[in-house]
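Journal club prep — side note

Before the paper discussion, L.F. wants everyone to see what a predicted structure for a comparable chain looks like in token form. Sequence:
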Amino acid sequence: MAEELFFIKTNPNVAKINLYNKLCRDEEKIIGFLQSDAKVSLEIIKNKVKDSVENLSKEELSSIFQWFSNAYPADREEAKTQLFIHGLDLFYEIPKEQHVKSFQEILADYEKYSKQNLDFMVDAQNFNQFLIYGLFFTDIALQEKGNDTILSHYLKSDYPSLYTLAEEQFRANGPGKGNDSDLHHYFGELYDLTKFYKGSIIKLDQ
């Protein structure tokens, strides 16, 4: 199970120049982070980035992410800054393994019952629908424990079908695993950070 979950926004126009040039300039450094047949893999990655960074596979993006992280092992903020400069904005993370597990379980249930597959790279609008569902689901769990939240009440009238789905799933799955407050916080912050964003969202687990 992944220990951390990272959320990244893409800027294909910036990546097309900055990331592509860095890949060309630092070939020997990134090769160690690529799978077998690294030189061929690197050429494939370079061609994809030159077209659009959003064409990269999850494994290719993970390799690039690890490459940047390894370059600044003691300074995570600098690694994030460098990723941003090269077209990959690591804008949020869930740092605890048990929270990642619960988040992924809620996502899996949502995919199953909404009949949507939210892959590692997903359109922000579809991702936002899931976040609203997650807010509703964790809000219902918190209400069961006597806690009340505000954001869900504002959203309920605009997304009645998502609220109904969350209610049905809560009844089917029972109460949360004791970290509903933390999860509600994650869903709320992710919702605020993505509600006006129009591009793709990447979910990378490490």
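L.F.'s comment for the group: The first strand starts at residue 5 and ends at 10. Keep this in mind when we get to the figures.
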